[in-house]
Design brief:
Layout (H helix, E strand, L loop, with lengths): L10 E3 L6 H15 L12 H18 L6 H27 L5 H10 L3 E3 L9 E5 L6 E5 L7 E7 L5 E7 L3 E4 L6 E11 L2 E2 L6 E5 L1
Antiparallel strand pairs: 1-2, 3-4, 4-7, 5-6, 5-8, 8-9, 8-10
Length: about 210
């Protein structure tokens, strides 16, 4: 059994500039990139609506430059609306890309929409974890889930030489009480799947309170 599990989660992101003028330019670029784009035939919101909102923001930005009363607030409201539309379009692109098996194809599709793909991130999921419970001598164990119909056979030790059984469970979690407080205990489990007994997990230690 491996010591960790690598999870990959590519995410579509927007490269939104902070300055309003640059923001308008970026929004127009996304709008143009999606027009007639075969990868994304049904963008939400419709691109004509999105374009109209961008134009409204551009007009509001021009008026805000005059510092007329209420012009800045109107500009900010129009900008917020365009941001919402950009978020909806990002979600739409994400939903389409999620059905694409090839990472290379997905990256090309996202680029064609004038968006970016966040670099995949990894997260280590331990085989087993242990933490102290709400009373002295009580420990809560959690295993990396291996799916349905799996039997988890738990064990603990004081010296990693002699292992003592903890009642088996059909869930990837169990609790044990009555352990000796103020001492270090070691825990592990073995899984029984349809393929048979798996190797023992990594060993995790815990100073029991």
């Amino acid at each position: 059994m491996s010591n960790n599990d690598t999870l990959i989660s590519p995410v579509v992101v927007l490269n939104v500039p902070r300055l309003t003028k640059d923001f308008i330019t970026y929004a127009r670029a996304v709008n143009v990139a999606l027009q007639g784009n075969d990868n994304f035939p049904n963008p939400t919101p419709p691109l004509d609506v999105f374009a109209a909102d961008i134009s409204a923001l551009e007009d509001a930005e021009t008026k805000a430059a005059t510092r007329a009363k209420g012009a800045a607030a109107l500009r900010d409201a129009k900008k917020h609306k365009v941001k919402e539309h950009l978020g909806q379009l990002r979600s739409y692109v994400q939903s389409v890309v999620a059905t694409t098996a090839s990472p290379t194809d997905a990256a090309a599709m996202v680029k064609s929409a004038f968006m970016s793909l966040r670099k995949p991130t990894t997260r280590n999921v331990p085989d087993v974890s242990a933490k102290n419970g709400d009373v002295s001598g009580k420990v809560i164990l959690a295993a990396k889930s291996l799916g349905p119909s799996v039997l988890y056979s738990w064990e603990y030790s004081l010296d990693q030489s002699k292992w003592m059984p903890i009642p088996d469970t059909m869930k990837a979690r169990t609790e044990m009480s009555g352990l000796t407080p103020h001492s270090t205990h070691y825990f592990r489990f073995s899984a029984f799947t349809r393929a048979g007994k798996q190797d023992s997990s990594q060993v995790v230690s815990l100073f029991v309170h």
